[in-house]
Write a structure and sequence with these properties.
Chain lengths: 187, 349
């Protein structure tokens, strides 16, 4: 159980049976008045953001959140299917919940699924993934200026800027936190 | 090995301009009061019984407390025949920490016998015009908006927390537009004065009365009114509901209001003043009410400050005001963090 004065950026609390993460926090106190705790909150299930001020008497339950290793299986309609490696149970996330992670989901990749009271609500990817370039303009001779780049498509359909020397069929390493190209992978 | 980091030196060194602005400001303030026949006093930081206030909690120091303001001791000096006194001192308030709050901060407090709150507003204006001039701001000062911008369409959608007054006006987002950043604020006299009631009519989606009925005064002040005060020129907001003016004299023409005012610059509260209550029995009653409210919250038990109450009947009619030095330096140093204008924050110690 938390009180309003325990709130801080990054804290996850349960409000109306849904998990929220505090994205901004400010202590305010109008002249001679009571302390107010001004927050911005993000609903961790639907991603909606709210602004709200709390009083010191307000209390919050801890959100029961944990992560579990699972394997990505396939996409069906707008549902993404994952399998729990321990008990082989399958769980589903919506396109919304998968969000930008969909750019890096390849078959059988191991990810962490965020569970709220055993309900899957989100995903976190490994920091780095290796994907194959499926569409790229051929490398033009004379295009040697260092730092020049071109867009290519990788196997998930994601378009990414890479150095001009990268060619179709090559494997590249991508930082999933920034969505940016890191290096070519040999072999 | 000590836990000293190079970053600590950097943190202190980068405050050089703000700390110089601070030192010069304090010199200007002293000069103003000396030129106006005020006596500088020093009263005790460590006291046995702070003024019981519903929303201000003192920090203990042995069996006693650190002062939350020098008010009680300074009023005893007034009662003893010191008609014009000022003090620049440290004040301490428990659990107050934010971008505009430190648990230990510096307050300028002054009292003038024979003044009422409007005369004190005049004097506060004269003081600040003088100190701004000393820092090279003759006509205006560029100042950010220190208020908190409310994005109402995102607010209060969480049902369990839905205890806001539910008028339709509350959803009117057109009310929410206010200029937010780096505006020139005119410093030339006269500064704006607006009653609390009129500020609600002008800026808030509900009236003052509605906000009190729904117990939402503080929220509406923070979300709607504060961010709109003192944007064109510094603004005094005055005549607070009586129960929000615990040490103030009530208005003779309407006892529902106390003769209390606040000064705002750029959406930030800088000072709070009153025509002081001089009726000891009424003051005792208000203290007792505050003590009851405090004990309901399980806050520290204070003794009634008896020596203060005994002296109160001898106190001449007067007005007094407290002004936050740190926040004034924030405006001069153009920063939105109180941390930038003090050498050390508690976290740096």
């Amino acid at each position: 159980m938390y009180t309003a004065s325990d709130l801080k950026k990054g804290l996850r609390v349960k409000i109306d049976n849904e998990p929220y993460i505090i994205t901004e926090f400010n202590f305010v106190k109008p002249g001679k008045g009571q302390a107010l705790y001004r927050t911005k909150l993000k609903n961790m299930i639907n991603g909606n953001q709210y602004e709200r001020s709390f009083r010191s008497v307000d209390t919050f339950e801890t959100a029961d959140l944990r992560e579990k290793k699972m394997q990505y299986l396939y996409k069906e309609g707008d549902k993404y299917c994952f399998m729990d490696n321990e008990n082989y149970e399958q769980v589903y996330l919506t396109e919304n919940q998968v969000d930008e992670a969909k750019n890096f989901l390849i078959d059988n990749i191991e990810v962490e699924i965020l569970l709220f009271e055993d309900r899957p609500i989100g995903i976190s990817l490994p920091n780095f993934v290796e994907l194959i370039v499926t569409e790229a303009e051929p490398w033009a001779k004379g295009d040697t200026a260092s730092g020049s780049s071109k867009p290519v498509k990788v196997q998930t359909g994601y378009t990414i800027l890479v150095p001009t020397f990268v060619t179709e069929g090559e494997k590249i390493r991508i930082d999933t936190r920034t969505g940016e190209y890191l290096t070519r992978v040999k072999g | 090995m000590s836990e000293f980091h190079l970053g600590d030196n950097f943190n202190l060194a980068r405050k050089s301009q703000a700390l110089q602005a601070r030192a010069k400001l304090i010199q200007s303030i002293r000069l103003f009061f000396i030129n106006n026949d005020f006596l500088e006093v020093e009263t005790s930081l460590r006291i046995p019984s702070p003024a019981p206030e519903e929303h201000i909690e003192a920090i203990t120091s042995g069996d006693w407390f650190l002062q939350t303001s020098p008010e009680l001791c300074m009023k005893r000096l007034l009662a003893a025949g010191y008609p014009r006194i000022f003090q620049i001192s440290k004040c301490f308030r428990a659990a107050e920490r934010g971008s505009k709050h430190l648990p230990e901060f510096t307050m300028l407090e002054w009292y003038a016998a024979g003044f009422d709150y409007h005369q004190l507003m005049d004097q506060c204006e004269a003081l600040l015009i003088a100190v701004f001039k000393d820092r090279g701001h003759n006509q205006d000062i560029v100042c950010q908006n220190y208020g908190y911008e409310s994005q109402n369409k995102l607010r209060d959608v969480i049902p369990s927390a839905a205890r806001d007054c539910s008028t339709n006006k509350f959803q009117d987002t057109s009310l929410l537009k206010f200029e937010s950043h780096n505006k020139k604020i005119k410093l030339v006299s006269p500064w704006e004065r607006i009653t609390v009631s009129n500020a609600f009519l002008k800026y808030a989606p509900v009236t003052l009365e509605e906000s009190l009925i729904h117990d939402k005064f503080d929220e509406i002040m923070v979300e709607y009114i504060e961010p709109r005060l003192g944007l064109e020129c510094p603004t005094f907001i005055y005549d607070y509901p009586a129960k929000l003016a615990a040490l103030a004299k009530l208005k003779e023409s309407n006892s529902a209001f106390g003769e209390r005012f606040e000064l705002y610059i750029g959406g930030m509260e800088l000072a709070n003043g009153f025509s002081e209550l001089t009726d000891a029995s009424e003051q005792r009653q208000r203290f007792e009410e505050a003590l009851k409210l405090r004990s309901a919250k399980k806050w520290a038990r204070y003794e009634i400050p008896e020596k203060f109450l005994q002296s109160l009947d001898a106190m001449p009619p007067c007005a007094g005001i407290a002004l936050g030095i740190d926040r004034l330096v924030m405006i001069l140093a153009d920063t939105d963090k109180i941390d930038d204008v003090v050498a050390f924050t508690p976290e740096m110690l």
